[in-house]
Design brief:
alpha+beta; 23 helices
Length: 744
């Protein structure tokens, strides 16, 4: 993960990834197609791990028109950690990784390579006398509460007159004031971006040594200042940009936190790829405390002070548990306060908002990500998905296709694009089923060679694609016209579970993947008649829910988890209904309704949500009406269902199926005496089926039931004319189809 920067990075007291002195950090321009990330100077070496070896085989069988594709059983998942490394805990590592925070190797890290460390300037540097440098952006940022301003020293005391008649030499008042202030001025008070260079010069005088980098940049070394043996100050255009402190002797972490007023700030642990602790970063203050080279973790032998940066907040967010939605969102907002055009911060924000069902906000964040600094094809792919959520499937397919076919895009992103392309084609209807299969298989072909990539972000992204594509192929086979469905679906599901187990074990993935697998497994089996008992899966879903719930008290995540658990139980309802296990189905429907109700808090109900809720409530109502012959109970479920199935956002989606559902609801409302509502629902259902018939004449037979029902309803109301009209219309359709049966 990398943060984008709107302006050039200031000079830092750092070493680069090769442990060589850094003279200047330059940022490469952003490219529209998978940009090369800039090498940014940092106070520690940031690098991705190189843990893993390539797969021995990545062959994946192509989809065939005659039989469903099956996973290549020879494909193995083999992730080998570096020798001596241990798998880090979930909260240990994030997208940014640190190889090491090094002991001081040169006195002046900013010196050019091959030159002396420090040199006395031929002409003493004149103190800056112009306006004070502007305050740090964090001073005005509403989300930062921990900005510390330097306190002025106490006023100098007036010397007492001597008792004897011989007076000592008179010391000028200005000199006495300077000496008094020098005694009270502390290194702990220096704040880059706030403390002025003039103030340092007036208190400490000339530095022991200096090194000029260029016309605007230089480093000053002061020795034996208070508690510190060395104080190195990096200056750019007469502004202090960073301070490197070496204590005279090791200090306690508690003392450092008190002196810098860090006790109210949550630090982020800095770790190497194996999870070994290397230090702490305090983002609100821009302070880094590396782990002492020798001694306990509570000892401090080096301190780096810089202005707060977006990158430091991104590091803390990446170190947090993936389940801590609220705290991660807060860190991303703090990063955005520092760098308003950080594409990665906006992208990560959008991902969480989408999980919470706040898709209008998620789309706006995704839009800012695609127009921000560091924008990538992956950001555009996510925005495309949100375009589909808003109802524009055709545009989503077109945009996803462009990314998938762009050879300049990184392979792991292209694999993800092909997987998303297949998902969108599956949404387009049965006629696109085989195309969906082809793109899901293509996603596996591209991703398979990357599962042991040395770049852990690439490796993890590839494995996630393999999980998603395998589960998607199970859905494709279940909904398409394929033979050997049961056998093939099980193979794809089992292969996806192999990758999930690997990600949980080796890649710090959470149990959310297992919840998704249970949901997709039930969904696949709900699309066709199979002798499958969902009892064991239901127990696992509830168990997984309880386990995830116990891992965090984050209310945002709890809300998302309730919604996703309700989705999973809804699929079990559909299976039990198809198996004629009506009591079990009704009991599960009540459970699913409770979970979904909790997940609806703060959620924008989208198209897919309306379909899920409408279908769930209709199924429960149908069991009450048909199997239980309890129309009063059925109406209770139908009242909830019709609000979703008639929502304007559905427009032309699933016209015939929604129409048939409304016709069935009309019968129950009619039966309990609500005749007006019964007729209205039947008429509305008939109109939807007629619209579907206009697109597909083969659906005309579905009009017979609502026409017959309306004819009977109007006959009982005494409207013989309308009854005769509907009877004639139904009979005309029967004659055209050669069917004289009557169905209500």
């Amino acid at each position: 993960m990398a943060c984008g920067w709107a302006i050039a990075e200031p000079i830092r007291l750092t070493l680069d990834e090769s442990d060589q002195p850094v003279s200047e950090a330059k940022i490469a321009p952003v490219q529209h197609t998978e940009p090369v990330q800039p090498i940014i100077s940092r106070p520690f070496s940031l690098s991705l791990t190189a843990d893993g070896e390539p797969l021995e085989t990545s062959a994946v069988r192509q989809a065939s028109a005659e039989e469903p594709p099956t996973p290549n059983q020879d494909t193995s998942v083999s992730v080998r950690a570096p020798e001596g490394a241990q798998v880090a805990q979930p909260a240990a590592n994030g997208p940014l990784r640190v190889y090491g925070i090094h002991q001081e190797k040169i006195d002046n890290p900013a010196a050019l390579q091959g030159t002396s460390r420090f040199s006395e300037p031929e002409v003493p540097l004149n103190p800056a006398t112009k306006a004070q440098p502007p305050a740090s952006p964090m001073a005005d940022a509403p989300l930062s509460r921990f900005t510390q301003t330097p306190s002025a020293g106490p006023p100098a005391e007036t010397p007492s007159p001597a008792v004897n008649t011989k007076l000592p030499p008179v010391v000028p008042l200005t000199q006495a004031t300077k000496e008094a202030e020098a005694k009270t001025f502390s290194v702990w008070q220096i704040l880059p971006g706030q403390t002025s260079l003039t103030e340092i010069e007036s208190q400490w005088g000339k530095p022991a040594q200096t090194r000029r980098i260029d016309q605007d940049k230089h480093v000053r070394l002061y020795e034996q200042q208070g508690d510190f043996a060395k104080v190195e100050i990096a200056v750019e255009k007469d502004q202090i940009v960073s301070v490197f402190l070496i204590p005279a002797k090791s200090m306690s972490l508690e003392l450092v936190e008190q002196k810098f007023d860090l006790t109210k700030i949550e630090p982020a642990a800095v770790r190497d790829p194996s999870g070994r602790h290397l230090g702490k970063i305090y983002p609100e203050r821009g302070i880094l405390i590396p782990q002492a080279a020798e001694g306990s973790p509570l000892e401090v032998d080096r301190i780096i002070v810089q202005t707060p940066s977006a990158e430091s907040f991104m590091i803390r967010a990446s170190n947090r548990s993936p389940l801590d939605f609220r705290d991660r969102l807060n860190d991303y907002q703090l990063a955005i306060a520092q760098e308003p055009y950080s594409a990665e911060a906006w992208y990560q924000t959008s991902l969480i908002l989408h999980r919470l069902g706040r898709d209008t906000e998620a789309f706006e964040a995704a839009r800012k990500a695609t127009s921000g600094v560091g924008s990538s094809a992956e950001h555009r792919l996510h925005r495309t998905l949100l375009i589909v959520v808003q109802g524009n499937l055709a545009s989503g397919i077109q945009n996803t296709q462009q990314i998938a076919e762009d050879v300049t895009v990184a392979n792991h992103v292209r694999a993800k694009a092909h997987c998303q392309w297949g998902d969108l084609l599956q949404m387009a209807g049965p006629q696109k089923n085989r195309e969906a299969v082809q793109h899901h298989v293509k996603a596996i072909e591209i991703a398979s060679p990357l599962v042991n990539d040395t770049n852990q972000d690439v490796r993890r992204a590839a494995k996630q694609v393999l999980v998603d594509a395998h589960m998607a192929l199970a859905i494709d086979i279940a909904t398409g016209d394929w033979e050997k469905k049961e056998q093939t679906i099980n193979q794809w599901l089992l292969r996806s579970k192999v990758y999930i187990d690997d990600m949980v074990t080796n890649e710090q993935a959470t149990g959310e993947l297992r919840m998704a697998w249970l949901t997709k497994s039930l969904m696949a089996r709900s699309f066709y008649n199979a002798p499958f008992d969902p009892g064991d899966a239901i127990d696992q879903i509830i168990g997984q829910y309880r386990e995830l719930l116990s891992k965090t008290d984050d209310p945002f995540f709890h809300r998302a988890l309730e919604w996703e658990t309700g989705q999973a139980l809804s699929q079990a309802v559909f299976i039990e209904h198809a198996r004629d296990q009506h009591d079990s189905a009704l009991k599960l429907a009540e459970q699913a309704k409770a979970f979904l109700k909790g997940g609806l808090a703060g959620r924008e109900v989208g198209i897919a949500d309306h379909l899920l809720l409408g279908n769930l409530y209709f199924r429960a109502g149908a069991i009450c009406a048909v199997q239980k012959q309890d129309h009063a109970a059925a109406v209770g479920w139908y009242e909830m269902a019709m609000n979703h199935l008639t929502d304007p956002s559905l427009q032309s989606i699933m016209l015939d199926r929604r129409g048939e559902s409304l016709v069935s609801m009309g019968v129950s409302f009619w039966s309990v005496g609500n005749r007006e509502q019964g007729i209205a629902l039947t008429e509305q259902g008939k109109s939807l089926i007629e619209a579907a018939t206009g697109q597909n004449a083969a659906l005309q037979k579905k009009l017979i039931v609502p026409l017959d029902n309306l004819a009977e309803m109007y006959r009982e109301l005494g409207n013989a004319q309308k009854s005769a009209q509907y009877t004639a219309s139904a009979q005309k359709i029967r004659e055209s189809l050669g069917d004289n049966t009557i169905s209500r």
